[in-house]
Hints:
Thrombin, subunit H; four-stranded antiparallel sheet; globular
Amino acid sequence: MYENNMQILITDEILKSFKTCEIVKTHEKEINSIDFSNDGSLVLTSGKDDLLCVFDVERREIIRKLFNRAYGCENAIFTHNSRAILCSSNRDCKFNFLI
């Protein structure tokens, strides 16, 4: 669908033309990070509530929730494989590899 090195310049004019299409309440606290899978089909969010959510863009639904209460969730990204997540801790400078 998308090439890995594809970049899109988002100008102020383009950003102002965006409209909200859906609001999904997943986190009890602020969201720390958002990442898209390589093919753009999944969105990953990590929050200050120690929750990781994987969202299916096309179906507009949450497909997985993972709590990382032991270490917290500062930032999370998909690896090259959209079934694996790398998460940095906000408590002890560790990284977690979640499948």
